[in-house]
Amino acid sequence: PLRSRLTPLALTAVGLMSGLLSSQALAVDSVTLRVGHALNEDHVVARSYRHMADELEQLSDGSMHLRIFPNGQMGSTQDMLGQMQNGALDLVHASASNLESFDDIYSVFNLPYLFPSQADFKKVVFGPIGEEIMQSTREKGFFAIGAYVAGYRSFYASKPIRTPADLEGMKIRVQSSPTTIRMIKLMGGSPTPIAFSEVYSALQQGVVDGAENNVPSYVQTRHAELARYFSEDQHTSVPDFLTIATSTWNRLSDEQQQILQKAVADSEAYQQKLWDKVNQQAREQAKEMGAQFIEVDKDAFRKAVQPLYEEYRQQSGHAELLERIRDAEQDDDQPQG
Ligand code: GCU
Questions:
Q1: Which among 7, 53, 20 is positioned nearest to 242, based on CA atoms?
Q2: Is the ipTM of this complex over 0.85?
Q3: Residue 335 covered by a domain
Q4: 240 CB less than 6 Å from ligand 1?
């Protein structure tokens, strides 16, 4: 490749020229990808993106860079997904909840009690069905190149939530997902969509009475200080995705695409390992922060959300996905991620 024969100075010149001429032929040589996320720096996925940035530098001999905009610096995830479609960002971290309003195909991952176990989650998300969903939106200007585990989401508030009746009259922060909004309504609560980085102050100021998330996020955001009761109804397992603008992807050379794909695949493996470790520690940390874990009877919650499945089958354009996920869950021969 041309790059290995150029001195650093020459590379800079190429970089400058490519900026001036914005010629694709020149721009392929050195590339900086801009990635935005709304997570704080401690979040397992945020750490995995830093790992990916290092990996990208190494694999490309310093010619591919990841410039990370963390903490919702570039706005909420919904804002950033819009910016990616306008070309202001190359990559955006988004949970399947955020992606639902950009393409309905992601709504399936927001269905409560979809996966009987975390092994089933991995089988689906990192298997052929997940891959198909991730690739499906290319024509819309973006697609997903990486997927990340995110455990179970449960409710937390300043009082225990043991049954759906306890949610009565409670404002619960949710991600911007129509399926989640409907789920909370069916359970009896009042869903309030708020950007992730604003939930702490929303809890503090009483804008919401509670929220729902996995244990590591509950701890890393320090929400555990404000909402002491973590009630483990484990209603959803919503995967996180790294999305990329189709135009950015097409601008990369074959070699750059392969390098990026390798760095992303390694970040997935890194994240899963880190997740297991952090997930174990998080419960103890939560308790140290004064949190209490409440065991709940999941069946009452499961029952309350049943209409959502019927609605999904009738209204979603992707009802067949649900059947395929159920089949995959029952099939032990499906490839595991
Ligand atoms: C989890 C998830 C994030 C998401 C966040 C949220 O932490 O990993 O991707 O943004 O929940 O509730 O907004």
A1: 53
A2: yes
A3: no
A4: yes
